[in-house]
Design brief:
Number of helices of chain B: 12
Largest sheet of chain B: 2 strands, parallel
Number of strands of chain B: 4
Largest sheet of chain A: 5 strands, antiparallel
Structural class of chain B: alpha/beta
Low-confidence stretches of chain B: 1-6
Shape of chain A: globular
Oligomer: heterodimer
Chain lengths: 208, 199
């Protein structure tokens, strides 16, 4: 889905802010949240695939996503999945937190509608165009390369297609490729000598 | 409720997000999902996180051993496994910087990071400005971050959007000929292995 998480190329952000002497976790709750979301909860969900976890973050309200810290998003996503799996109720969470407990929006999109490719159609050197699509479900195809032409530079073997695993217990494995795009082709701004290399599943591509 | 709560002078009352995080942890624990002591045990492990030390060892060996360097660039996963760090390597690809080519890594969709060699990512890597701007204006952003590249250096940005994780092999700095592999590992920084700094 084209939500706020798909940040590549968005304008209007300020400088990168580097925290001096940063610790891995600012507080205990961040580390605990990491464990709850990434280690403990997936074992208790009907679908604990990475794609389903990531999609729970992507379903957050756009304004809230952009104004939440990294681990705040994980709290929201973990709570959403726990409620959807019937492990806790929204009311229990609000009562325990002593206030509002925002959750991500419900799942709206079904699984992938067109059949995934599921096999290797491309090889190193092929010119490929990224599909100009806007799926409403989870995808790992960033928006900023859609419709653009690049060259396959590496084949990395077969991996579970996130677009399927996020929305069902079904799994389709297909190849991922590293695809090289000229920055000037992406942004049409005359940037010389810059390439942007993106890793993409076969289903995201068409022959150019 | 702890003593500070009972006596009503908690120095800083918990923020809404701290209350929400605590509520979730408490409820999942009460429902029996969290093995006793599990969270505290793992948090202790995190405190001993060695950060980018594994990556620095890999880079230093690539600098002193040309055969290892060739293996690392050919199959990063297998070459890192030679060290036996004890963490799953994932699918690792090493990217070699040279006088004419600079590599830099980002994850525009979330925060994918080569944690088996670099540890946990810094906050700026996960925040919106870096994820939004690196693929659009890398030369400008790198300069802002203190990594000045001359106009004739090509920049390769790598968006780790699938299952591969990237490790940048920075150029070995001049004047380090006399250093041992162990001493070289000490000068390899995390930022140089993400690609936002040169050594």
């Amino acid at each position: 889905m084209d939500s706020a998480h798909d940040l590549g190329g968005r304008q209007g952000f300020g400088p990168v802010v580097v925290e001096p002497y940063e610790r891995h976790y600012h507080a205990r709750w961040e580390a605990a949240t990491r464990l709850l979301f990434r280690v403990i909860l997936p074992h208790h969900l009907p679908n604990g695939a990475d794609g389903a976890l990531r999609h729970a973050i992507e379903r957050m309200d756009t304004v809230r996503y952009l104004t939440s810290s990294y681990y705040e998003r994980w709290v929201t996503a973990a709570a959403t999945l726990a409620v959807e799996a019937g492990i806790v109720t929204h009311a229990e969470l609000e009562a325990r937190a002593g206030g509002p407990y925002p959750l991500s929006a419900p799942l709206t999109a079904g699984t992938i509608t067109d059949p995934p490719v599921g096999r290797a159609r491309f090889t190193v050197g092929d010119r490929v165009r990224v599909r100009g699509w806007h799926p409403r479900r989870h995808t790992r195809c960033p928006w900023y390369i859609r419709g653009h032409v690049g060259v396959v530079t590496r084949c990395d073997g077969y991996f579970s297609l996130p677009d399927v695993e996020a929305h069902s217990e079904h799994r389709v494995h297909e190849p991922t490729y590293s695809v090289r795009f000229d920055a000037d082709e992406l942004w049409n701004d005359g940037q010389p000598g810059v390439t942007v290399n993106v890793d993409l599943w076969d289903s995201y591509l068409e022959r150019a | 409720m702890n003593q500070a709560h009972l006596h009503g002078h908690h120095p800083t009352p918990p923020s809404p997000i701290e209350r929400r995080a605590a509520a979730l942890e408490e409820l999942l624990t009460e429902k029996g999902l969290v093995p006793q002591g599990f969270i505290e045990d793992v948090i202790r492990l995190y405190e001993n996180d060695i950060g980018p030390l594994n990556g620095a060892k890999v880079v230093a060996r690539a600098w002193v051993d040309s055969q290892y360097r060739a293996r690392l660039l050919e199959d990063g996963t297998a070459a890192v496994r030679e060290f036996g760090f004890g963490t799953p390597e994932g699918n690792l690809v090493a990217l070699e910087n040279s006088p004419g080519v600079h590599n830099v890594v980002v994850c525009t969709l979330c925060s994918c990071y080569p944690w088996s060699v670099l540890g946990l990512p810094p906050a700026w890597y996960k925040d919106a400005p870096y994820r939004a701007r690196l693929v659009r204006e890398p030369r400008v952003l790198l300069r802002e971050m203190g990594c000045e590249l001359s106009e004739d250096v090509d920049i390769r940005v790598w968006d780790s959007s699938a299952e591969v994780r990237y490790l940048v092999v920075p150029e070995r700095p001049a004047g380090t000929d006399g250093l041992s592999e162990e001493e070289l590992a000490e000068i390899v920084t995390r930022d140089s292995m993400i690609g936002v700094a040169r050594l």
